[in-house]
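Hey team,

Filing this mostly as a record. A colleague (T.K.) asked me to run one chain through the structure pipeline before their review meeting, and I want the input and output archived in the tracker in case anyone asks later how it was produced. No errors, nothing strange. Just documentation.

Input sequence:
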Amino acid sequence: MTAEELRSIIAAGLPCEHIEVDGDGRHWSAVVVSAEFAGLRTIQRHQRVYATLGARMHTDEVHALSIKTFTPPEWAAHPH
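Output structure:
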């Protein structure tokens, strides 16, 4: 899997204003910005992202994914 493929999978399952994906093909890190995260705790946000990957997490197609999630206002206030 490529970073672009992983980004596309997340974007297809979750309306996002911004997505960054980096990794080596098995271990990934992602920054996901979505208005759908408003009012959700961190674990709930991560569960929403993991849900977009479905079985890919269970079949080891995506071995590890480190996620940082933000709402659009949080992202605007975040130094990046």
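Quick notes for T.K.: The mean pLDDT is 93. DSSP finds three helices and three strands in the chain.
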